[in-house]
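Q: what does this look like with magnesium ion bound?
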Amino acid sequence: MSLGEFDLIQRYFKQAAKNSAEANKNTDSGIEIGIGDDCAILDIPDGYQLAVTTDSLVAGVHFFEDVCPYRLGYKSLAVNLSDLAAMGANPKWVSLAITLPNVDEHWLSEFSRGFFELANRYNVSLIGGDTTKGPLSITVSAKGIVPRHQALLRSGAQQGDLICVSSALGDGALGLATKLDHLSLTNKSLKNFPLLNSQAFVDALELTEPRIELGLLLSGKASSCMDISDGLLQDLGHITASSGCSAKLNVEQLPLSVAMKKEIAAQTISLDQAYQYALTGGDDYELLFTISAQSFKQLNEHIAQQNNGLTNSLAITVIGEIVEKNTQDIQLTLHNQPLHNQSLLMQGIGWDHFK
Ligand code: ADP
Ligand code: MG
């Protein structure tokens, strides 16, 4: 390595962490000892618990080797912050283990820029990590704080609760299809059936927004919550399994983005394909939660107060209902007609690394 390990850490991570703390005037970071010692030492405020999550991104599995390093830096943090959002935690600290095949300073500076762009947005401090040589991979561990016993879990859904999601579903999966040049449902090449705006879907895949504010708002209101990383159906299955209940999903209520609706109108993809992406595509990183009708009303009042219609990041849609105890299955309906297992929509549910 031309630049040594310690200079590299100093230049692209330690200095950037310092600049970011100064830019945010982050005097209340809770960091007694940050980067530079063998461990970081952190203060957790009274009455709070620590929420900890780790996600790895491996070249060739989670991203293309030639991905823009800015976007890789951004996304490696975004997927971790999304896990904190899902638990209703307030993100505070992050550590970064990075394995690099070689030292490419342009690559490192872009990676660091993307990482800190998002870290600064949510006032998250980089407190340590590890730097090694080998095939490119990134492991981030994010830490947040959550009021004692208030974390949102997968296990609290109750019969009669509404099932909701944030923003829109399916764009990330269509972005991946774009990059792979493969429309999964039909084996059509997207080069032969070009989308109107493929960049919008690639952006959705690579620049996901963690739903931190929504997670904080849901704390004390939602009965269960998780983020959708492996596809709505598979992830809702985790909620029904943990909660011991079953769910009814109304497919026509799935929220689709403006970009997706334009593609459907132009017939570059079909409505069935859009629903399949929304149901089974991964990489949405939207929040999936269950909530009683009464708390849902309060939530909407809070959202209306908070954003006065300014941001669409807090848009939420009811897509179904928790229906009964114990069976732990998911029933799909389209305009009140049951969709059966052999339906196109049910093929290839969700993402599993070992299948
Ligand atoms: P050790 O040998 O004790 O694991 P290192 O020499 O690997 O320590 O790291 C020195 C310091 O730099 C530690 O505080 C560590 O947390 C930090 N560090 C190493 N790599 C990174 C990184 N990629 N980003 C942020 N901090 C890092
Ligand atoms: Mg050590």
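The pocket of magnesium ion (ligand 2) is lined by residues 38 (CB under 6 Å). DSSP finds ten helices and 13 strands in the chain.
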